[in-house]
């Protein structure tokens, strides 16, 4: 692989890894607090793209305002999912919440098919013309959209870390992830914090879905399944329950997927297989992930 192709793939890998990281954070935050895998998270990713699409085509909003509205809408959907589906099951066995999560995922996909239609729609009209331009840096030819996506991803990750580690609600989130009953005894409204966690993770998923649709400009009701599954693998790889681990796992998975195909183009048709190989290896040799906490067994 030439230096030009390596740099080209490097930018693509960073962008893809950043998108996986944004989705994986939603999985890991919910798991860190409730020990629940929210399988509907990938479908919130999909709903965000439709909200942006119809914000421009139906409501005639400017593209940037449609994106903001879509992210806020994704956060509201995440909050609503928690209130309707998960909150009534707080004291139920975890298997009940897990089955409910799968049911919510199927509901959102079927809802999208009925309301939005099963025929894929082009997202190209959402992308402003200046983002479609190509920037030439030496021998590199990179679309402006790539730099835009990387800037938005970096900004969202920094904002997330600020919220989690520099605000009161972030402190409450970290406290709840350690001990919910004790945190409640200290006067924290745990339901509000849990709802905020769902909303924050869903907002990141919606933003990731919009950037994804800009890079791969076709949307359909089942588009969130594979990215959501890979982001879950990234969260497990980095250490489920660790925000930094989810970020690291997302970037490593995205880079590995792009670089393997770049170095071995004959394996391009098997690119999805690599993610599952990584999942099998990490579960076999380090089930807590790269940055996961060590498990202690009480005898």
Would you spell out the secondary-structure blueprint of this structure?
Elements: H1 3-34, H2 41-57, H3 63-86, H4 94-116, E1 121-122, E2 134-137, E3 140-143, H5 144-166, H6 168-178, H7 180-185, H8 190-215, E4 218-219, H9 225-238, H10 243-263, H11 271-285
Antiparallel strand pairs: 1-4, 2-3
Helix pairs in contact: 1-5, 1-8, 1-9, 1-10, 2-3, 2-4, 2-8, 2-9, 3-8, 5-6, 5-8, 6-8, 9-10, 9-11, 10-11
Written overview of the protein:
The protein has about 300 residues and is mostly helical. It has a single domain, classed as ABC transporter involved in vitamin B12 uptake, BtuC. Helix content is about 70%, strand content about 5%. It is built from eleven helices and four strands; from the N terminus they run H-H-H-H-E-E-E-H-H-H-H-E-H-H-H. It has a two-stranded antiparallel ribbon. A two-stranded antiparallel ribbon has the order 2-3. Strand 2 (about 135) and strand 3 form a beta hairpin. Helix 1 (about 5-35) packs antiparallel against helix 10, helix 9 (about 225-240) packs parallel to helix 11 and helix 10 (about 245-265) packs across helix 11 (about 270-285). The protein is globular and about 60 Å long.
